[in-house]
Amino acid sequence: METLRISTRSFTYKDFAPLFKSNVRVSLTKDSLNNIERSHKRLLAKIESGETIYGVNTGFGNLSQIRIDPKDQKQLQLNLVRSHASGVGNPLEPGLVRSILILKLLTYTKGYSGIRPVVVEKIVQFLNKDILPVIPEKGSVGASGDLAPLGHMALALIGEGSVFYQGKKMMTKTALSIARVKPLVLKQKEGLSLINGTQVSTAIGIKGLLEGDNLLKTADIAGALSVENSFASRKVFRKDIHETKMHPGQQLVARNVYKLLNGSKIVQSHSNCGIVQDPYSFRCIPHIHGAVRDTFVNAASMINNEINSVSDNPLVLENGDIVSSGHFHAEHVAQAMDFLAIGFSELGAISERRSHYFMKGVKSKFEPFVTKNPGVESGYMIAHVTASSLASENKTLAHPASVDSLSTSGGQEDLVSMAPWAGMKLLQIQQNVRYIIAVELIIAGAANNIASEKIRSGKGTGIVLKILSSTCNYENGDRILSGEIESIAKVIKNGELVNAVTKQNFME
């Protein structure tokens, strides 16, 4: 089992990849624990001084003007967790829950939260015992922290609610008994600290980046295969052309497509065909795919910054001051995911346009809908309709969540980020794009089977065609295609295509 060592070093979204594959062991460095202990001592000193501290000896949100008697302060934290565990919907997947717990540890290691070391030790214990809180996916507006979902996380830590223990859903009390784990007893500020923060929003953003990294590369592969088998030009991907524009994503995509088509006799077969310009969806692959790549880089930077930030409130500063702030507000994460949603929607849109091109047929090469027996056969007519449906769905989903807001908490929290919804939309868009690209790959492979089967493909695209032919039964003509689309979408998701071509150095 892989071990993830939590320290004060900087983390990136890529460090979270193992969490989405299986459970990992977690350990904390001594420096991290020392930071937490020092912060706790500073909080205790302020409590003993009698100073008014939000969420410690006051109510919450619009109730912050109410002073809490010392005898009620522990109950205050318990009540907070119970009342805020108000989420609904399907449970978040295990990888997201693990990421949430790790992100919570990372914010604590900075030493600004005031909680006891036992809190982080309990989180580590949950991870190492494979006890994952059941966290409903809906209920957070991405400000004042992801309150409802983190309320469910905290609920499990105190022995209430439900968990998945080694993959099986059960009452938390039962799981802790089996695993011989004692529930956490909350003290001042600890309930507030647990439910405060952007960890749910950020975890979803991390998954969007991990999914997106592979999807960007797959889009280049599909684009190259379509260029080749639609008999479009390779010349427009030349390095010297794209060096005249300063966008790094554009230059990278052009290099990828050019490499994938290296050695293709198909693209050479029509070098003097007289066609001056191909449609935008072919000729502008570097410009459109590249723009999405550059958006991805910017979004990754914003989310990486959030991973390494403190999102607690109030903050216990090094000089002992305890101050309220808005660090729990997930606007950066929301906008990053909204930008990604727009970008990946465009990635699906251009893929659908390339599939549409094949539907028209190419004179002397292949018939409309890429059929072998037109009229009797419908070919890939409705597979393209499926792609069109998903591309249209994405256009609606791409509407930014971050431009919407509803005032909550009696008006105290009057402009929220809607980051979790921005993230969930992004993941749905990415799933749709996998299907759209799967359709494009299947259609481009079918065109190759009909028009180009006796002409050598590119060295990179040839690898792709071998993978496609092992799944797609091109020789049978009309057939049920939904299973093939699902299978190729899985091939995309598991990275098989990308790994196969990068292994041979046909893309970056």
Q: Any key phrases for this structure?
A:
508 residues, mainly alpha, Fumarase C, Chain B, domain 1, Fumarase C, Chain A, domain 2, 2 domains, three-stranded antiparallel β-sheet, two-stranded parallel sheet, 19 helices, 9 strands, 6% strand
Mean pLDDT: 92
Please give the largest β-sheet.
Answer: 3 strands, antiparallel
**What level of helicity do the residues show?**
40-55%
Number of strand segments: 9
Can you tell me the CATH superfamily of the largest domain?
Fumarase/aspartase (Central domain)
* Large-scale geometry: elongated
**Terminal Cα separation, in Å?**
30 Å
- Helices, by number, come to 19
Strand content: 5-15%
Low-confidence stretches: none
| CATH topology call of the largest domain | Fumarase C, Chain A, domain 2
Give the C-level CATH assignment of the largest domain. Mainly Alpha
Q: Which structural class should the secondary elements be placed in?
A: mainly alpha
